Design the sequence.
């Protein structure tokens, strides 16, 4: 996978880059390990540095990997004590994003394997479902659970989401699932690439 280059941070639809090529979006609760997963999948540290820069955590951060392939880091949700105005802005930004991107070809949701799917993740999934996009769930921090418990959690989440979702145990610390996640992304970027030429 080629190294991602930071493209832009978007606070509204007007800031989104051109809707061409293919992009895959990463969503997840704050502290679910989304930035760490993005870094290990992309093989660079700078992704998280960009997305965690004060002032950028509530924005959509776009990265480009070579020709017409993008990674999109959506702002995390589930912060404690967030003012209603911030929540409303988050909601309208995400609505603008999911409602407008023809180039969106897959969504990755990071879920802390110890917590499993929370109510907020279910809400996010409700939002994504109508788009009928391939979905990957990264069960992050898999090193925090024993193998048996991790497998049980993976089966539970798979059963809950059905055949449309690919569930992977993932640990940035132990590099578990990194190759699988990369392969999944490559397939999403490649999807229908001929149609774009
Ligand atoms: P984000 O807010 O969703 O972007 O989450 P971060 O990537 O910042 O991670 C949140 C916390 O979980 C940090 O303290 C990370 O060090 C930790 N973390 C992330 N991935 C892993 C992992 O694979 N294993 C372990 N043990 N900790 C992790």
Sequence:
């Amino acid at each position: 996978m080629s190294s991602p280059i930071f493209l832009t941070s978007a606070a509204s639809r007007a800031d989104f880059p051109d809707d061409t090529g293919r992009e895959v979006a990463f969503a997840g609760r704050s502290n679910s390990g989304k930035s760490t997963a993005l870094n290990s999948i992309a093989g660079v540290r700078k992704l998280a540095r960009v997305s965690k820069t004060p002032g950028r955590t509530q924005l959509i951060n776009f990265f480009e990997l070579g020709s017409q392939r993008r990674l999109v880091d959506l702002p995390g949700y589930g912060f404690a004590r967030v003012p209603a105005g911030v929540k409303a802005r988050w909601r309208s930004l995400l609505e603008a994003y999911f409602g407008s991107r023809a180039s969106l070809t897959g969504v990755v949701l990071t879920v802390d394997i110890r917590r499993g799917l929370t109510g907020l993740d279910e809400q996010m999934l409700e939002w994504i479902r109508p788009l009928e996009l391939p979905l990957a769930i990264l069960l992050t921090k898999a090193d925090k659970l024993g193998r048996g418990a991790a497998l049980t959690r993976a089966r539970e989440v798979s059963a809950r989401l059905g055949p449309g979702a690919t569930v992977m145990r993932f640990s940035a610390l132990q590099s578990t699932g990194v190759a699988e996640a990369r392969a999944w992304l490559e397939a999403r970027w490649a999807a229908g690439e001929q149609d774009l030429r």
User: Anything to note?
Assistant: The first helix runs from residue 34 to 42. The mean pLDDT is 92. Residues 28, 30-36, 76, 140-141, 143-144, 171-173 surround guanosine-5'-diphosphate (CB under 6 Å).
